[in-house]
Amino acid sequence: MWQGQKSAAAADSRPVGRHNTRDGRPKRHVASAARCSVPVPTGYDTRQRGVPTMRLESGPAGYDRNYYLIFLLLCIFMGAYFLYDHQIGYPKKNLEAARKALTPLIGAENIPQTLPEIPTRLELEALTNQQPTDPADVYQVLGQPLFTKPGERAGERLEYFVSAYGAARVPVVQGRADIKQVHWMPWEKSKEEIRLQLYCALIAFVIGLFVLRRVYKAATLRALIDDEGMTYAGRRIPFENMLRLCDYNRKGWVDLYYRHGPQERKLRIDNQKVRKFDEIIETLCEAKGFEDPRQIPEEVPAPATAEPPPDTPDAAAPTDTRNTDRTDET
Predict the structure, then answer these.
(1) Helix 121-130 vs helix 135-142: angle between axes, to the nearest 10 degrees?
(2) Angle formed at CA 83 by CA 79 and CA 88, multiple of 5 degrees
(3) Which residue segments constitute the domains of the chain, with CATH numbers given?
(4) How far apart are the C-alpha atoms of 249 and 269, rounded to whole Å?
């Protein structure tokens, strides 16, 4: 009995400290998360402990990337289309036209699958200017004839020089070439038209390379705002260099003016390029104390003024009574 009372009295006489409760039991330690939730005193720089006080990161918006991606696919499609015509489409049309024109003359089985590059209209014009009479000179310019047919005149033969672009018919009478009677039969597409398709394909692919670069820039655009400033598309702008945020357009862009050495430059922030457009504006305004450029006062329409009544011929003009008063006085 006495021991029980003594132990109870000893328990009551234990000092109350930071490690004990009033009933004598030790305090339980508070979780670290509760200690971390204590607000940081004013003037304490958390960056000394490696904890940033402000951070906003944004990726690219989908509109700008998708726009240039569609443009890139269009350039690839057009380049492939022109290249197909240069390599397959136009030569195939010319071969079909050659078979249609030459089959009644020599038969379809005698027409080769591939036709030579010469002669063309240019070689034929050069031959006409030279006016050679020796068939050997003609062969040096036009090549060898594909086939020969007898002509209507005595001792005349018609030599046909066939190419991928047309056929030249040169009459030879008594062993002498009659260049004045040369006839050119063009196929569907000329050599210049086929070559033009190659140039168009190259132009489309070159434009596609430029658009590909824009797609890459649009897809990799990043905006980062931290304690020192903002990095936008690889361009670093410290807060102390930012001058003003203005020229907001309702279509979705705003201009940030900043100092770059002795010059003043402008950075356009566009909601079609960066995803967190509104958050970036709010963060910059909060960090620099700028007025929100989106808060544009709505234009109040001017009150309608009553139009004066139109002049009518019946309206009498006001009379000047000053002269009459003077005459009365006299």
Answers:
(1) 150
(2) 150
(3) 69-193 (no CATH), 222-288 (2.30.29.30)
(4) 11
By DSSP bridging, strand 166-173 and strand 156-162 are antiparallel
Say whether 58 sits in a helix, a strand or coil: strand
Category of 261 on φ-ψ map: left (φ > 0), alpha (ψ -120 to 50) or beta: left
DSSP annotation of 1 reads -
Paired with 225 in beta bridges are 56, 230
Q: pLDDT tens digits, the chain, 330 residues: what are they?
A: 444 444 444 445 444 444 444 555 544 443 333 333 333 333 334 344 444 567 899 999 989 899 999 999 999 999 999 999 999 999 999 999 999 999 998 888 888 888 999 899 988 888 888 888 899 999 988 889 999 999 888 888 999 999 999 999 999 998 899 988 999 999 999 999 999 999 999 999 999 999 999 999 999 999 999 999 999 999 999 999 999 999 999 999 999 999 998 999 999 999 999 999 999 999 999 999 999 998 866 555 556 565 555 554 444 445 555 444 444 443
Q: Using alpha carbons only, what angle is made at residue 64 by residues 63 and 66, rounded to the nearest 5 degrees?
A: 65
Position of tokens 């190259």? 202
Euclidean distance between CA atoms 200 and 207, whole angstroms:
11
212 neighbors 205 (Cβ within 8 angstroms): no
pTM value is 0.64
Q: Letter for the amino acid at 28?
A: R
Would you give the DSSP letter of residue 274?
Answer: B
Q: How many whole angstroms separate alpha carbon 56 and alpha carbon 222?
A: 11
Cβ–Cβ < 8 Å for 82, 198: yes
Which distant-in-sequence residues (6+ apart) come within 8 Å of 85 by Cβ?
194, 197
Distance, C-alpha 259 to centroid of its chain:
28
Pairing assessment for the beta strands 235-238 and 223-225 based on DSSP bridges:
unpaired
Round to whole Å and give the CA distance between 268 and 248.
10
Q: How far apart are CA 99 and CA 185, in angstroms?
A: 13
